C-alpha cells in the first residue's frame, strides 16, 4: 500500500483538492510508519526465536503484533491530525510542471518528530536486537567449541 500511495501521490495532488491531498498525505505517512513498525516487530520476533528460544509463550501473539503493527502508526497519525490537520498538504516544487506537486507533511518540525525520530528509534531498537542476537549466537558457538574440545580429550 505504501508503494501504491507513493506512486499515485503526484497524480492525485494534481487535482488541487485540499481534502484529497490531506487524505493521500495521511495514508502515505501511515503506511510508511506501519512498514517501519512491522520491521521492528520482525526484529523482536527474531530476538524471541533465537535468544529466548524456550519458555516463550505469549498469549495471542499474532493479535498483539497486529495491534502494535497497525495501531502505533495510527496513534502517531491521530496525534498529528488532532494537533493540526493542515500539517499535511500539497508541496509544490515547480510552477511549470503540475506533476511536481506532492502531498506530504508540510511542517519541518512535524516531519522530524513523526518520521525521522520514529525511524531513528526503530533503527536503534533493531540494532540492539541484532547485537543481542549476534552475542547469543557467538556464546552458543563458543560453548559448542568448548564441548567439542572436551569430548576430543
TrEMBL record:
SUPFAM superfamilies tied to this protein: Family A G protein-coupled receptor-like
Primary site of residence: membrane
This protein's UniProt keywords: Membrane, Transmembrane, Transmembrane helix
Pfam families recorded: 7tm_2 (PF00002)
Magnesium recorded as keyword: no
Gene Ontology cellular-component annotations: plasma membrane
Name of this chain's protein: AGRG4 protein
Amino acid at each position: 500500500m505504501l508503494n501504491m500511495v507513493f506512486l499515485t501521490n503526484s497524480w492525485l495532488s494534481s487535482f488541487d483538492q485540499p481534502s484529497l491531498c490531506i487524505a493521500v498525505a495521511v495514508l502515505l505517512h501511515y503506511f510508511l510508519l506501519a512498514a517501519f513498525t512491522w520491521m521492528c516487530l520482525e526484529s523482536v520476533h527474531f530476538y524471541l526465536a533465537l535468544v529466548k528460544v524456550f519458555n516463550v509463550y505469549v498469549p495471542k501473539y499474532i493479535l498483539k503484533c497486529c495491534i502494535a503493527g497497525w495501531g502505533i502508526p495510527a496513534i502517531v497519525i491521530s496525534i498529528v491530525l488532532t494537533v493540526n490537520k493542515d500539517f499535511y498538504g500539497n508541496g509544490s516544487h515547480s510552477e511549470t510542471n503540475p506533476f511536481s506537486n506532492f502531498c506530504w507533511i508540510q511542517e519541518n518540525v512535524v516531519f522530524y518528530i513523526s518520521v525521522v525520530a520514529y525511524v531513528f528509534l526503530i533503527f536503534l531498537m533493531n540494532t540492539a536486537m541484532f547485537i543481542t542476537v549476534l552475542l547469543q549466537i557467538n556464546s552458543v558457538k563458543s560453548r559448542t567449541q568448548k564441548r567439542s574440545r572436551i569430548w576430543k580429550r
